[in-house]
Structures
1.
Amino acid sequence: MTRAELGAEVAGTAAELHRLGLRPGDVVGVTIGDDCHHLIVSLALMRLGCPHLVLPTYEPVPYREELARRVGAVAVIAQSADAGFDGIPSVLAPELPAAGAAAQSALPPLPGNDVVCTYIASSGSTGLPKLVPLTHSQLFLQSVAFHGAGQAETYFRPASIEFNNSKRQRLYVLATGGANVFADANREQAIETCRRHAVTLFAPGHARAQAMAEREGGLTAPLPAETELRLDGAPVSRQLRQGIIAKLTARLNVTYGATEAGSIASAGPDMHEIDPDIVGLARPGIELAVVDYDGRPVPDGATGDVRLRGDAVVTDYANDREASARAFRNGWFYPGDRGRLLDGRYLCVEGRADGMMNLATINVYPAEIERVVRALPGVVECAAFSVSLPGFGDVPLVAVVARPPATEQGILGEARAHLGLRAPRKVFLVDSLPRNAVGKVARAELADFVKPAQR
Amino acid sequence: MSPQSGHNLTQIVAEAIVQCGLVLEGVDDPSDTEAVMARSFLELGFDSLNLMEFCIAISLETGIDLDVGKLETLRTPAAVVEFLAKRT
């Protein structure tokens, strides 16, 4: 699809949604699993000036309903007529091609740059997802930081557009004049897809990258010379970096980012041996610092809290003053990561300050699991924790002190229904939770519940 | 966990498939373990998310690392049972 064809589809879809009653400023949920259809509807809403929020089809309906209510959605655009959201009208997504509809309805003026174009749900440390409001100008500035000015990439990420990073980065690509490749592919097909479509930026995700780099019984075909492999969203071990460089490409770029800021730093091919935790240099427009508890910069090489600022960085969360006050302080954004600066410029990220888990690039906070499990009948108390599995990251688990009628399977099922992919994968029914001298749950000891065979 | 017999491993793999929560394709009776084991993950309707869940369930239950890339080689649940048997 050319940009002109895409523009016509977006205009047609916008006209149809306008005809159906959507107006600038209306907040809209989007629950469409098909990548291309989802993207076109999202762009149409952005054209109309309707901020939208992804309500992933892979998440349970109650979770999507809660998100839609929290953001104040007046409607939900769905791909099927039977998508029911309690109390929120559903709008059937206009069928494609919708190009012809553009001529039939006058569109409102283009929205201003400072208008919110999308809300992005990011897992919340308090147990509720944080809603990150992104304006048109912030989206564009994040796009430039992601690609570099003047870069028009051909981008391939074999993951659903309903995932946060996947959605944002596809919008970045369009904002900077690039092209998106949509294809589901195993590792060999992925390499062939890169070759066939002259992909310049391939973002396979950690699990796929690891599978490609660790192939047994022979060498994986290398990526085409023009293809850069980019990994983001979770720490990348030195072993994985070396495996990718040895078997796939020397053009490996490890990127550190946040929903609130887009790309924050990136480490190119010449940086991977500097430090095992290196995520590289600040991206254009981002000012980075590592500070102590009082906000004073720590000495070079010392560990502290990472903070950053820049025009692409959002300044608060929607409808969450408590989380906003914690993350946005004195003009800086604190992503909640611990790190070091080397030579005053190379950022190394050591991990989270708040126990956040990272399951296949999906952020999961213990608090959101505990909030759901604690509310179940028979549950006395609980504590979420994780084990690390190669290729997947932190797998969430939960230890529960419970009485009848609570059961392991019942808790698993309810957690799955409310949390979807962020649900614990195993429940440990225990007599009591380990506590430290002041009575707080000793989280480091929770892993002892996992039998050696279970790690 | 003590070394597992072939029967136990078959049970673990079958339960891991159930935990993925998908409606199995290509089999008349999803409780027919033998039929399910012989089909490829692709034929059973697994997508990338289901495969991830399957690997996590197996790894948690057995302590043996299994990644999605490995499943591309093993292809069927029966082959996973054989793979696990060699490592217990």
Note: The longest helix of chain A spans residues 3-19.
2.
Amino acid sequence: MPESMIKVTDLYKSYGNIQALQGLSFQVCRGEFFGLLGPNGAGKTTTIAILCGLLEPSSGKILIDGEDFGSRSKALKAKLGLVPQDFAFYPTLSGRDNLLFFGRIYGLWGRRLEERVHAVLDIVQLIDHAEEMVKTFSNGMKRRLNIAIGLLHDPEILILDEPTVGVDAQSRNAILESLQALNRTGVTLLYTTHYMEEAQRLCQRVGIIDHGQIIALDTPLALMQGLGEGLICLELNRPADEMLLRELGQRGTIKIVDDEGRRLHLTVESKQRTLRELLEHLEKRDIQIKTLDVLGSNLETVFLHLTGRHLRDTLV
Amino acid sequence: MTGAGKGVIYQIVAIALKELKVLWHDREALATLFAMPMFFILVMSFALEGVFEAGKKGRPIELLILNQDEGSISRQVIDDLKRVEGLILIEAHHGTPLTLDKVEQLIREQGHPMALIFQRDFSERILQANKNWSAQEATVSLMVDPVMNQQLVASIRGTIQGILERSALMAHIPQRMKQELAKFSGIPFLSGIEKPLEEKFSAERLRERGTGGVVFRTIYPRDFEKDRRPTSTEQNVPGYTIFGVFFIVLTLASSFHQEKADGTLLRIRAAPLTKASFLIGKLLPYYFMNLIQIASMFAVGVVVFGMKLDHFSGLLLVSLALAASANGLGLLVASLAKTEAQINSLSMLFAITLAALGGMMVPTFVMPEWMKTLSLFTPHAWALAGYHDVIIRGLGAREVLTEAGVLLSFACGFFTLALWRFRFN
């Protein structure tokens, strides 16, 4: 059994009447690149805030490297590096000055500090811009500096909350490569995103979070394999009856998505063959299709199948 | 109107409505926006009423009377002064006649602005002066607190001087006339009378002996080192220094807000750092900035206006405590305000209202009693009292321990409230 670096058990957090986390449990192993995938408002940022000691949970337990994080001890905090979703630095200071400041509050001084500043500037490819005032940086450069600050004190665990939001494709690629390289050095990464392609590319395991709960947790491949070759999403002009459900059930795994039974998800082994047979059967029974989507097997489809909703606000 | 024109108007209206909604959601800032000028009007009107009305019927000035003379002339002067509107004469304290020590104590410790002191043989000396020009001078002293507004002192001094003059002359003239006329008895009445009378009662002769033969001096309580009038610099520098020091409230509170807005507070909270370390580190620069600010202001007073600072230790003590209370208020505003607008309004409200109430713009002694009492609840008033003690009254560190202590108590109170209210998340 690999050593657990983060172990979250039965975590609850409420804001007034809103339940942000409802018994969230997962663990991240040492050296693992773990993704927490979910739509906006699923509870990812709340989870991260609790993990970093920024929020108190309503209940639940967190172990960091086997130690209870309830104490929020300095030693445990020093093991964590945070890359928040929003920029978090002083825009009127230079990149280097920002790094020097944050390095000092993590206890770095002198030559060690200089070395780490140089190292992280190198990782995020900002050495040439280190002396420039941060407010003059492009969005991508700011994102990279945001990551550099999180890496500065050489944390054992790096927690990244949607670090590529609003970044152009080129910068995003550079950031993802840096993170992969970092993971290869043994750093444990907990990565939240709602970009399924990022999670697929980076993460060894993915926890899908919705309404403050983990609804699926496995390797991206295993999660996608559960869908077979893909997913057929149907919306009919009338609720599916017993006969239709039986017929469809013979062709794959069927799931009724809405209360009326008009919207159905069908996971299939062969999209092409199943689709042809399905259309023939519906025509014979004079059932009309209002909408039809045939989706490939990816994490977005997994999320759609699990929740009936798209991961992102816009349809992929 | 064209469609495009209507479109522009709709856009303007939409923006205006949005702005009103945004303002409406920040009701605290909106309230302060109205409260600030209202407070300012109230405080300044009440305070300035004191300046314009001081020494008038509605806002009388208290004048302590120490009459060591047993003659009738001093009594006459006192009776005449009692008829002057806007002066309240106090001849006893808790039923006991005043003594010189008591008078000094009342001025020094209880805020009485001035005292009129008649020397022991005041009346006798005036009468002697009629017979013999080389006789000893009759002296009346006006003992004033050096921090008193000099214009006000001058106007009261002028009133007293006029009454003294008249009383002294009234005492001289009948006796002199009688003496001079006696010399000319039996001689044709008018011959030779003009010249000697003119000689004896000429304005110049009288002026030689002061006011109708009376020397009218302004003195200060004995414990106050300086027996001179405070300069305008000595009055203005401390006042405006304190006024400026409290502008740190805005800078400091804004920096906390900016820390939240930039997201850096979040990173700091995630770091292995205690809240106390963060707050101390954050406040220290502002505290030193305040001290540099104070030093610069006084340096201008010394270098440009030749202000004398003899008691550096007292000055330092008050300054250290003053900067602490200003920083405390800054943290309190940071903890109370939720938006940039609220920080701006609250800071200005505190900076201006407390300054006005604390006597930075209008001296507290001309304020109504209830405002004088209220001013004691401002750090400004205590800081000003401390600086006046050191600069104008020439007192040292030991004598300003109370003021420094009260300022530090303000600082503690502000910090305690601020830490109770401060939300790091």
Note: The mean pLDDT of chain A is 87.
